[in-house]
Amino acid sequence: MLRLPPFRLEQPETLQAALELLAAAGPQAVVLAGGTDLLPNMKHELLQPPVVVALSRVPELSSIRQAADGEIVIGAMTPLAAVAASPLVRATLPALAQAASLVAGPQLRRRGTLGGNVLLDTRCQYINQTHFWRSALGFCLKKDGTACHVVAGGSRCVAAASADSAPALMTLGARLEIAGVAGRRQVPIDAFFVADGIRNRKLEPGEILIAIRIPAPAAGHRGAYGKLRERGSIDFPLLGVAARLDLSPAGVCEDADLVLTALAAAPRRVAGVAEALRGVVTTPASGSDWVAALGKVAAMARRQCRPLPNIPGDHEWRSEMVPVYVRRTLQAAVAGEGPVHHV
User: Fold this and answer.
1) How many CB atoms sit inside 10 A of residue 154's CB?
2) What's the Cα-to-Cα distance from 274 to each of 170, 215, 226, 254, rounded to whole Å?
3) Is residue 151 part of a domain?
4) 125 occurs within a structural domain
5) Which residues of the chain fall short of a pLDDT of 70?
6) CA dihedral sign, ordered 262, 83, 105, 228
7) Taking the model in full, what pTM does it have?
8) What is the Cα–Cα distance from 123 to 236, expressed in whole angstroms?
């Protein structure tokens, strides 16, 4: 049985109290949301924080609301199950609702939070193991070692970003609201992630993600999320595909976006998608135009997105599935269907 290392648990009842506790405890302190990622990592001795600050008693961080200007604000402590089931999210942000619905299994979605999923630590088949297993291998760049076991001679960790919600939020132009003792700031989610598997997010010690802010979607917004995994539940993505399309009343694509995850340390936006799809009629009456456009975008994604052998699952097979899931997810977005999650 794997045991948690010793630590002191703090359970503040206000955001200000939580921030003050983190500031006093120092940079090694960590925040506990649902714990579905943090606690296993602590058991594997990837983290040994002296102080854990739990946010479960801070009620202001759990909510879903729509502002007068149409912006949708979701508290970082809102359970993933609540995000997936929210009528507002399902109606206006289908890709996000679908992504939330595919995280882990029902029990973990009731415990895990949207903010925790956004901040999910990067994963690799050489790091997410017990300390005993890793010590036999010789450790790695992400923790205690000096070598990358994925890329021979690599100087940067390539552990994979594996949060299902992050690519969906990127297609939606979300902003992250972050609080610290010095005040609050907002950062576009695109600028939040960096290509470093050791720490792939710009969150300073002592800061807390408190809300995700999503602009009002366009009138013709369509979205979908596709998740490649070996089983129908529990698994982290072997590939995640978030698609957004903005359609005119006649079904003409006016804008589009496509973001993939579980490839490298940060989610990857496929360049040129909007240009390839803009002006294309997506209705059945378009004949072969939509089919040709889908093939073009799928080929673009295949060229730009090259899975590494950093997570379980054959990376060459994952590469072959990139165009398949891109095509399926775009089709689901147009049809108002989804999620796409079977192999």
Assistant:
1) 15
2) 14, 19, 19, 8
3) no
4) no
5) 285-287, 342-343
6) negative
7) 0.96
8) 9
